[in-house]
């Protein structure tokens, strides 16, 4: 089982993580990449790199033959699948082995058995692991499923046997809904996984998601590396993970851990894996959910509290090495939290964000697993998660504080991220008091989450930071004369004007040589003495009180953007100068209110209207696919479809006109 070169059948942050593991053991790494990832950091970091196809995953990262050919061409002796894509594909694991290569993961039989939720629950029962009551039989007829549904009683879930991520899952609260739920779950499961088999399971509301990290070698040793809680979820997708799981009875914690070890031993499991449970605090019970036969996204929190490098041990185990740790050697230190950093806009229903990263200033002193850097392009072809922020502290309260402090120092430009939303989760009383659960976001934000807005003080400081950026303190008198000099920043004599977002009245920044004053439209003034902006930090005295804030200034396409650290977190505040306003007015009139445009790059999945159709404002005209999500694009006004500029299958850029409406002919 010796190998010196590892092909990584994945991309982004997990590819770079595996590259670091290879480097630790002196192994060479081979990156395979799509045309869309040609200039990505994981490609540049690799010892060898091979392009295996187009941007679509089916043409590249899911193309088994292309991956195996790349391994043969580069002389790789092993393949690491990472997570996602082909990582839990038993056929891929078998194909790698059949090609004479080492698959860095469990055996194909174990992947296949745990990949079927029905078989996995049967294996759990055999290993004396509690499972939820339900029906998991081979008889998939409507009559049998409905009979079992009546016996089980409501509420219950219809779940796809091959499912994951909430696909192929339906909640039934009234038996009258059961036939439709079964039919729709089957159809979704067949389309998503190629397997229409479903099972029924009692629904446990207000549960927590607790999982146990396990590690097994090919010599019969299986260890657990503790537990973690992943209960903060949106649409069954995890947002924040922490280890160990807090507020868990110690006897139950021990039972969960040993049950996970028993299950792994019963299927002769090797490599890293995770046994997932639902924990019902009200009943004081836990139930087997599934087993993930791969490295988890959240594996860094287990590494943080144990000091065990999971990727290193995956590679060692794949080489046939025995674990040198006994269970008693695994010690647990402190508390760790992982925050998933995604390119999306939570205030706009988590709309994916795409574009080029123009500013990348992550926090110092914490672990950041990332697939991007300044200059990277975030496209629409892949998952929106671009990084993971991992913190470690002596206790949970300290880990939360450190995670919030790190988010408050994280400045990114060009692409919007979900960090403000994640900060709101971390600081929410329900999370801090451990009252949250897997479907609790609606309780935490019953009226929806609203992005914090800068207050007057923040706006004034941002304008001062922009003024300092444009006229630094070491500039010559000619550069500091403002509007007195034709080529410098414009405004009234002795002052510079900045318009925030769509504000009609500007913020005026003036100086007397000692103080900088920001005069806000409402009449309030912010005065800063000895103000400096050095290497992204605004310092000075604000109304006599010393201040020091992170403040990064960047030029966007047609405006300025100040990334300012505030009491509510990092905020990106956009400003226009007088020159910007003139230029923007001159370039206006490109796309009117009667035209539907693409809010982001993507592929046109569906067009629901034809020329001549009458539509109402808000009707869905186009469905756009971006980052594996479907976005319904509504009519901006009521009217008649005049022109359609796209067709299904087209790839369009952001702001591309799609459909023009004629408001004059509306009825």
Automatic annotation (TrEMBL):
Looking at the record's lineage, which domain of life comes first?
A: Bacteria
SUPFAM superfamilies (alphabetical): Glutathione synthetase ATP-binding domain-like, PreATP-grasp domain, Rudiment single hybrid motif, Single hybrid motif
- Which InterPro entries does the protein's record reference? ATP-grasp (IPR011761), BC-like_N (IPR005481), Biotin_BS (IPR001882), Biotin_carboxylase_complex (IPR050856), Biotin_carboxylation_dom (IPR011764), Biotin_COase_C (IPR005482), Biotin_lipoyl (IPR000089), CPAse_ATP-bd (IPR005479)
Query: What keywords sit in the KW lines?
Result: ATP-binding, Biotin, Ligase, Nucleotide-binding
Organism annotation: Marinovum algicola
Under the GO molecular function aspect, what terms does this record hold? ATP binding; ligase activity; metal ion binding
- What is the name attached to this protein's record? 3-methylcrotonyl-CoA carboxylase alpha subunit
Q: What are the required cofactors?
A: biotin
Taking every annotated instance into account, which residue ranges of this chain make up the domain Biotin carboxylation?
Answer: 2-446
Question: In what residue span(s) does the ATP-grasp domain sit?
Answer: 121-319
- Residue ranges occupied by any Lipoyl-binding domain in the UniProt entry: 585-662
